[in-house]
Amino acid sequence: MHRPPDLRVIEGGVSAQDEPKLSRGHPAEAGNPECLWATFVATQERSKRTLALNDGLAAGHAYSAFLKAFIEPAPRGRA
Fold it and tell me: Per-residue pLDDT tens for 47-74?
């Protein structure tokens, strides 16, 4: 039997939990598809758990960063 989605309203629409943000510091991690995918999975699970808008947006941004790793050319060394 299929249950309808949980449409509870989260007070304030934001998650109050603190979890790591997207990796933007270390260049090797920023372009690593496995790290980007793991970040997306973690943020997606958090958004499902909290149902907070900001968590959903974070999951969307993480997925976008994962896709960009395959679309944008890798930076080259200086000439």
Answer: 999 999 999 999 999 999 999 988 866 6
Residues 6+ apart with CB under 8 A from 59: 40, 43, 44, 46, 47
Report the domain count for the chain.
Answer: 1
Q: Is 16 exposed, middle or buried (0-12, 13-18, 19+ CB in 10 A)?
A: exposed
Q: What is the pTM of this model?
A: 0.58
Q: Is residue 65 part of a domain?
A: yes
Local confidence band at 36 (pLDDT 50, 70, 90 cut-offs): very high
**Which range marks the domain in which residue 62 is found?**
25-71
Q: Is residue 9 part of a domain?
A: no
